[in-house]
Structure formats: structure tokens, C-alpha cells
Write a structure and sequence with these properties.
By secondary structure, the chain is α+β, with helices and mostly antiparallel strands. It contains 17 helices and 15 strands. Belongs to the binding-protein-dependent transport system permease family. MalFG subfamily.
């Protein structure tokens, strides 16, 4: 059998297994990608694809497929309360049971050589049963018989019984009348009563009340006639509800609009401040009369060389209200100790200060390289004309580096638009807004807000978080398109 045939069989088998487990989307993607790979490497007419296929496959698996899955989740109610499919949620509920205490039997363990025997006695003492010798755990029910006068050794102590608990807990015992007894305690076996039984059309019947709960495929719950529902719920499609909630739900729209606006302001101001500082330092360090320029450049580049999370944690300590060095200096000079982490305005200012510190070296390096490309003749001609440093900067330096720098600044804006690490390590989005149904912080940006919704608070609403993530993707994608357009224009002009 050829390698291509074996590969094709392996792809078909793997896709079939995925489909059987209910992963239809992943199964279809696996089948299509696998068949494309077999064709690419087995066909003599597809030589170029043998080199292109790994890259294309990686892009589809690690970029396109997660994106499609995230977009799809945004149209569902997927959350911690709706994790399962309807079939799995129904099966889970049908498996739930409780011990029938009225018919439970006390048990004792007795050693018989290397084996064990279990002696059971009813609560009123009218029924005494004995198991066959047990040496290992078994899945099949063990038939019990009347104990009679069978000789037994002394019952095992509680300590010895606990040491054999794993073996005994796996046993199912069968009474002469067919009742199955399950392990319910160290000294007890009893029958289990189902809490739910299957009804018609996918319904569930509660035991022993007989109340019928039917699946509501709009809310994702099993509900009775009064509208009461039971957990767990199940995942259903809800259309545009998550997006509608972002736009029209007043309780959600308030913090969402504020967070979206702060995200834009945070990203824009960070780029603005970092550009002003980085460009100024680059121009100063480009002054040939300045001594020790290399030393200064090395020192000013250090914030970019140190791992970001270390710098953020250091600043978190420096801004501590009670013990931080920044407040100690402010207290000594002006007698004030600002509450950097408790006041929303101060917390946002702190974020901008730290992020500017982390970002200016990148801009400084970019501007340093761009300044080297400016012909020195322009500055010589300007000096002959009697122009000063400010005139040179605004008439020569800034216009010549602005165009090639613009796409890079847009990239920096897009990066800060999703700067989750800074928010998570420095403020964790706090201080929080008050009286909101979903957790929202005054220093949250969209990506940290999404993380809190999806993984920390408010019941882990993955569907809503996926909708917000889709919105973030659209915004960042638009900025990337603008970046590409500006980059292309810059190349054409040059």
C-alpha cells in the first residue's frame, strides 16, 4: 500500500473520530486540510505546493480556524452556565441520582484468606446477605446470597476497611430480588434513585414530583411550565443578541462605551507621549557636539531592554500609596500622598506614565535610524540661511521622518490597543465602576475587559467575550489596512 493511500486513510479515520465526538467543524477542517496535504505531496503537478503547504496550513490552523471559532462563539450563549450541548446536558442530568436511605444496608468487611467478603444487614435486621469472596474490583454486579450460618472471621477494623476502600467502592452488589446496591459509605451500601427520567421530545421528568422540564432552545435551559429552569444549561445560537447587548443594553453600554473610549485615548496618548519624548531624545543624541552620546543612548535604551513585566512590577511598587518611593518624594516635597490605585484619574495617569516609559525607547531607536537617512547638505544650507535648531526641526527633520514613521506609529497604536499585560499587572482594571451588572474597571481597556468577562467574573460569559473579541479584531484589522496603505504610499513616494 502506498504512502499516499495510508495517509488518506489516516486522515479519513481521524476526521471520522472527530465527527463522532460531535466536533463537526473541526472534523470538516481536518478532512479538507488533510486531503489538501495528501494531494500536494502525492501529485506530480503540485511541486510548488509542497513548499507552500506548510505555511498555508499553519496560517489556517493557528490563525483562520481560531478566528472563525471565536466569531461563531459570538453568536451563541456559551458561558459557564451553558458549557454543554443539549444532548450532553440531558445525559448528565439523567445520570444524577441519590441514595435511597430507606433501603440502605449496613456493611462490614471480613477477610477470607487473601480475599474479602462483604456482609450486609438491613436496618431492621430482617435481612442478612453475604457476598462471594472478592479479590479484585470488577465491573460486573456481584450476586449476594443469604448469609445463613456461614462462618466468618471478625470484621475488619475501620482503619483496615479504609485501606481497602478503593477496591470496595468500585463494586456493585446485586440482591436476590435484583436490586443493585452501590457503595455509599465506609459502612454502608444502598440502592440509588434517579433524580430525573427521560420524557418525550427530549424532556426530563423530575423524580419523585413528576414535574416535566422541556428544553427551551431560546434560553438554553430545561424549563417547566412556570418558567423555572435547572442547571446545567446548554449552548444554543442566539443570533445577534451579544452585539445588540453591546449597543442597546443601557447597563452594559455605559461601561462599554467608556472603556472603548478610554482604550482609544490610552493608545493615542501613549503613542503621542512616547513619540514626543523619543523623537526629542533622538534629535538631541544626533547632535555631534554632544559628548558621551553612546553612553547616553545606551542608558536611555535600557527601559526597552529590560523585560516589560519586570518594569511594570517595579513601577507597581514605586507607586504604592503607603510605601512607594514616588509618594515618599511627593510627601517630602509637597506634603501629598496620591492614591494612585484608588482614584480613577490618577490610575489612568499612572498607566500613561508607565507605558510611556516602556515605549519611548522604541520610538527613539526608530527616529535615530530615520535621522541618519536625512542628507547633511540640508542642514548645511539651513545654517547658511541663518536658521536655528527649532527651524531645522520643524522645516527639515519633522517633515522628512513623519511619512516613514507614520505606519510604525499606527502599529504602536494597534499594539497598545491590545496591551493586556500592562493593565493586568499594574491595575488589573481597577478601580471598578459601581452599579454595573458585569465587572468593569475604570482602567480596563477592551482586551482586559474581555478577559474579565470571559474568565474571572460574571459567570464566565464566553459568548459575550467572543463578540467583544470580534469587535477588537475588526478595529485592529482596519488599522492594519490603514498601515499597509500608508506603507505602500510611503514606498511609492520614496
Amino acid at each position: 500500500m502506498s504512502v499516499a493511500a495510508v495517509s488518506m486513510f489516516a486522515v479519513l479515520w481521524f476526521a471520522w473520530r472527530l465527527a463522532a465526538s460531535g466536533q463537526l467543524l473541526v472534523s470538516t477542517a481536518t478532512l479538507a486540510l488533510g486531503m489538501l496535504g495528501v494531494y500536494s505531496y502525492a501529485s506530480a503537478t503540485s511541486l510548488a505546493w509542497r513548499y507552500l503547504f506548510p505555511g498555508v496550513a499553519g496560517m489556517l490552523v493557528f490563525a483562520a480556524l481560531p478566528l472563525a471559532y471565536t466569531v461563531q462563539l459570538g453568536f451563541t450563549n456559551y458561558s459557564s452556565a451553558h458549557l454543554l450541548s443539549e444532548t450532553r446536558a440531558r445525559s448528565y442530568l439523567l445520570e444524577q441520582s441519590e441514595v435511597d436511605e430507606a433501603h440502605a444496608m449496613a456493611s462490614t468487611l471480613h477477610a477470607e484468606g487473601s480475599a474479602l467478603r462483604i456482609r450486609l444487614i438491613s436496618a431492621d435486621g430482617s435481612e442478612v446477605l453475604l457476598s462471594p469472596p472478592i479479590s479484585t474490583a470488577t465491573d460486573a454486579p456481584l450476586a449476594l446470597a443469604a448469609a445463613g450460618d456461614a462462618p466468618l472471621g471478625p470484621a475488619l477494623s475501620l482503619r483496615d476497611a479504609l485501606s481497602r476502600r478503593d477496591t470496595v467502592r468500585a463494586l456493585v452488589l446485586k440482591k436476590p430480588d435484583g436490586t443493585l446496591l452501590h457503595y455509599t459509605g465506609v459502612r454502608e451500601f444502598g440502592p440509588l434513585k434517579p433524580l430525573w427520567t427521560a420524557g418525550d421530545d427530549g424532556a426530563l421528568v423530575q423524580q419523585p414530583s413528576g414535574v416535566v422540564y422541556r428544553p427551551n432552545r431560546e434560553t438554553g435551559y430545561f424549563e417547566n411550565a412556570q418558567g423555572d429552569h435547572i442547571q446545567p444549561g446548554f449552548k444554543v445560537g442566539i443570533g445577534w443578541d451579544n452585539y445588540t447587548r453591546m449597543m442597546f443594553d443601557a447597563d452594559f453600554r455605559g461601561p462599554f462605551v467608556s472603556i472603548f473610549g478610554w482604550t482609544v485615548v490610552f493608545s493615542a496618548l501613549t503613542v503621542l507621549f512616547a513619540t514626543l519624548i523619543g523623537m526629542t531624545l533622538a534629535v538631541l543624541l544626533n547632535w555631534e557636539a554632544l559628548k558621551y552620546r553612546t553612553l547616553y543612548r545606551t542608558l536611555l535604551f535600557l527601559p526597552y531592554a529590560v523585560p516589560g513585566f519586570i518594569s511594570i512590577l517595579v513601577f507597581k511598587g514605586l507607586f504604592n500609596q503607603n510605601f512607594g518611593e514616588i509618594n515618599a518624594i511627593l510627601d517630602a516635597l509637597f506634603g501629598v500622598r496620591p492614591a494612585w490605585f484608588a482614584d480613577p484619574t490618577l490610575a489612568r495617569a499612572m498607566l500613561l506614565i508607565v507605558n510611556t516609559w516602556l515605549g519611548y525607547p522604541y520610538i527613539m531607536v526608530l527616529c535615530t535610524g530615520l535621522l541618519k537617512a536625512i542628507p547633511a547638505d540640508l542642514y548645511e544650507a539651513s545654517a547658511i540661511a541663518g536658521a536655528g535648531p527649532l527651524t531645522n526641526f520643524f522645516k527639515i527633520t519633522a517633515p522628512l521622518i513623519a511619512k516613514p514613521l507614520t505606519p510604525l506609529l499606527i502599529s504602536a497604536f494597534a499594539f497598545n490597543f491590545n496591551n493586556f499585560v500592562l493593565i493586568a499587572l499594574l491595575t488589573d482594571g481597577r478601580p471598578d465602576y459601581l452599579n454595573t451588572r458585569l465587572p468593569a474597571g475604570t482602567t480596563d481597556i477592551l482586551v482586559s475587559y474581555t478577559y474579565r468577562i470571559a474568565f474571572t467574573d460574571a459567570g464566565a460569559n464566553f459568548g459575550l467575550a467572543a463578540a467583544i473579541s470580534t469587535l477588537i479584531f475588526i478595529v485592529v484589522a482596519l488599522m492594519s489596512l490603514v498601515n499597509l496603505k500608508l506603507t505602500g504610499d510611503a514606498k511609492h513616494r520614496s
